[in-house]
Each structure stands twice: as C-alpha cells, then as structure tokens.
Design the sequence.
C-alpha cells in the first residue's frame, strides 16, 4: 500500500469517529432533554452526519483505488537505468579497492628506505617452513597478553618499531 492509501483510510476513519461522536453526543451528555430538538442537538447531529458522509466518501474512494491497483496486470519490467548505474558503480569501486589493497600489501612487504634488509631465510623458502637451524620463518606478532608473543619470544628493540625474534627454548 502506498502512503496516499494509508493516509486516505486513516483520515476517513478519524472523520468517521468524530462524526459518530457528534451524532451521539447530545444524548450521551444529556444535552437533549425530552421534546423538540434544541439548536445544539440540531447543529451537532448535522455536523456529525456530514462528517460520516465525508468518511464514507473517503473510504469508498480509497477502496476503489486499492481495487484498481490490485486489478492492474503486473508487467515484467526491465531493470531501471539507475539500478544498472549503481551496479556499474559498485564494480568500479570493487576494482579500485582491489588495486588499493594490492598496492598496500606491496608497500608493507617492501623494506623501508634507509633500513637494512632484514636477516632471515631466503624468499624462495615457503612461508611457515622450518629453516635448517629449527627456527620457523613465520613472522612473529606481538601478543596482546602481557608477557610476550603467543609462540614465545623476546622483544628486540633497535631503532624503529619493536620486532619479535624467536628464542630457543
């Protein structure tokens, strides 16, 4: 349902309640005694009746609008140009993020200018393999728990950022 339909039904029902109250109010509040209708009763009843008619007209018009909407045959629609544009934008964003991530990885793996090449196993050695001396060439990351990294080690501070070196046990 559309907003227009909901508002039409809501206002029609609200007018119906107000009209019904105005029609019944003279007798509910005992304004109308016995005998002929007073001016207050005539005005209240006429206004309430007018609101009830307005309510019925609104409900009929809204109901016809709903029936017309439901009776209309559904058509297979082609994707909107805006949806196609959004899909193209998403693909270009994905490509840009992939390029950025690739460059970031390359930048993180390259040695910083002015720093010596770190001493370690040859690059041809597979990551995670064990060197001849029994020390793993996997990078050691600092642990969030106080006391050292998760695989054991000691911090080596020497100029820049601390690195972790495996300590033989």
Sequence:
């Amino acid at each position: 349902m559309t907003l227009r339909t909901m508002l039409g039904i809501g206002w029609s029902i609200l007018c119906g309640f107000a009209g019904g109250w105005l029609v019944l109010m003279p007798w509910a509040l005992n304004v109308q005694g016995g005998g002929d209708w007073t001016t207050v009763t005539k005005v209240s009843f006429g206004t309430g009746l007018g609101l009830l008619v307005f309510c019925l007209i609104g409900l009929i018009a809204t109901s016809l609008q709903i029936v017309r909407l439901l009776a209309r045959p559904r058509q297979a629609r082609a994707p909107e140009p805006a949806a196609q544009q959004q899909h193209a934008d998403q693909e270009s964003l994905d490509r840009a993020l992939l390029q950025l991530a690739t460059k970031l990885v390359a930048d993180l793996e390259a040695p910083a200018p002015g720093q010596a090449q770190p001493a370690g196993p040859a690059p041809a050695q597979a990551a995670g393999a064990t060197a001849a001396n029994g020390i793993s060439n996997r990078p050691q990351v600092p642990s969030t728990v106080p006391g050292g990294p998760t695989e054991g080690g000691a911090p080596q501070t020497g100029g820049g950022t601390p690195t972790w070196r495996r300590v033989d046990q």
